[in-house]
Design goal:
By secondary structure, the chain is of the alpha+beta class. The chain has four helices and three strands; from the N terminus they run E-E-E-H-H-H-H. A hairpin with a 2-residue loop joins strand 1 and strand 2.
Length: 140
């Protein structure tokens, strides 16, 4: 099978990673770093711009379904989270996914506390494992 793909000259450019140049492609930033053993290797991380767009989308879901049961909110968030986490699962995505996990955890806790007409986030009330097991919240 041969793909006949034309290169868009306006969007394409040559990048020399050896000189410290970087480029972005498919939601990731690519650069070259030196490993612990002293060998140069590629390093790619999810773009902050894409993470921010994801957080905006999840925040809108939380606002739209504020009066709904937490199970419905989690059911709306899980497919979006699953797709995003799978798309950035390569490279050094751990810090970004960890931030996302904490953010979603806090939003679900706030939703539960508001449903019970209480203030705060319920850090002492519910363990993280309980949230993931009971509400089937997606985690990596």
């Amino acid at each position: 099978m041969v793909l006949h793909v034309t290169i868009n000259e306006e969007k394409s450019r040559r990048v020399d990673l050896a000189r410290g140049e970087t480029f972005s492609c498919l939601g990731c930033d690519f650069r070259r770093v030196k490993s612990r053993t002293g060998v140069w290797r590629p390093w790619y991380t999810p773009r902050r711009k894409k993470r921010t767009a994801l957080l905006r989308k999840l925040k809108e879901i939380c606002r739209r379904y504020e009066s709904q049961a937490v199970a419905r909110v989690v059911a709306r968030m899980n497919p979006i989270l699953r797709g995003w986490v799978r798309s950035v699962a390569v490279g050094d995505s751990h810090p970004c996914v960890g931030f996302l996990k904490d953010w979603v955890d806090k939003k679900v806790r706030r939703h539960l506390m508001r449903a019970r007409h209480r203030t705060g986030c319920g850090w002492k009330r519910w363990r993280r494992r309980w949230l993931y097991d009971t509400w089937r919240l997606l985690h990596n």
